[in-house]
Amino acid sequence: MRYLILSDIHSNDEALAAVLARVRRKRVDRVVVLGDFVGYGANPNQVIDRIRNVRKPKRLIRGNHDKVVCGVESGDLFNPVALQAARWTTDKLTARNLKFLETLPLGPASVDGAFAICHGSPRDEDAYIFTDYDAYLNFRETDAAVCFFGHSHVPCVFTLEPHGILVELVQGDRVRYALRKGLRYLINPGSVGQPRDRNASAAYAIYDAARSVVQFDRVPYPAEKARDKIYKAGLPHILGDRLLVGA
Ligand SMILES: [Fe+2]
């Protein structure tokens, strides 16, 4: 089975459309989304509709922005910019799409018994994995050999090796990463709609479970268009400006 792994789309329809166009001719059996469908960007309905219309079996979980937008959580802990975007998004979403967010399951979840997925981390969907120590705590308290996570918007791989944890940032536009037998992995495919690793191109990954290979990929997309929509919507300009630099 080959899985398309998407995370942190954040209402960026231009980025999502570019990624889906890129994978159209690649073989993908299932689509997995690690949460944060919405928040920040100007096209929440378009993004949810686009995912809904993908004619492949899907495995979706919620992210912290999805929870706040649909009212499952208050947003008390959000910074003012994120909260303003969340309130704007709630206002714009159709009843059907609000329901879609409300009914998203929380992670961690198993995908076909082959690997696990979560939004922030397997221990806590709202917590980040940035350091080897964050990864260590998650390896210690969970048992999946392979777990994909999002939330940090940085493509990376944490490997539990016999004598420590290897931390690797995924740099470059196309990276083929072969998983080694007997080791355990926490893997972030990067963010489709709001990359934060100083690379403005949309990020995603394809996981070939039979071959144990993760293919990381970056896709340029019209970020100026997504930015202009954010300006026009009256959302904080910084949300649009960040798209052009990948920050
Ligand atoms: Fe996010």
Can you describe what's shown?
This protein is of the alpha/beta class and 247 residues long. It is 32% helix and 23% strand. A hairpin with a 4-residue loop joins strand 11 (202-208) and strand 12. Helix 3 crosses helix 4 (80-92). It is globular. It binds fe (ii) ion. Residues 8, 10, 36, 63, 65, 151, 153 line the site of fe (ii) ion (FE2). Fe (ii) ion (FE2) binds next to loops.
Topology:
Layout: E1 2-6, H1 13-23, E2 30-33, H2 44-52, E3 58-60, H3 64-70, H4 80-92, H5 95-102, E4 109-111, E5 115-117, H6 132-141, E6 146-148, E7 156-161, E8 164-169, E9 174-178, E10 184-188, E11 202-208, E12 213-219, H7 223-233, H8 237-245
Parallel strand pairs: 1-2, 2-3, 5-6, 6-10
Antiparallel strand pairs: 1-11, 4-5, 7-8, 7-10, 9-12, 11-12
Bound molecules: fe (ii) ion.
Largest sheet: 6 strands, mixed
Which small-molecule ligands are present, each listed once? fe (ii) ion
Q: Helix count? A: 8
Strand order of the largest sheet: 3-2-1-11-12-9
Mean pLDDT across the residues is 97
The N- to C-terminal Cα distance equals 33 Å
Number of strands: 12
Shape: globular
Q: State the oligomer.
A: single chain
Q: What sequence of helices (H) and strands (E) makes up the elements?
A: EHEHEHHHEEHEEEEEEEHH
Derived from helix and strand composition plus strand pairing, the structural class reads alpha/beta
Low-confidence stretches: none
Q: How big a fraction of the residues is strand?
A: 15-25%
- The proportion of residues forming helix, as a percent range, comes to 25-40%
Gyration radius, in Å: 17 Å
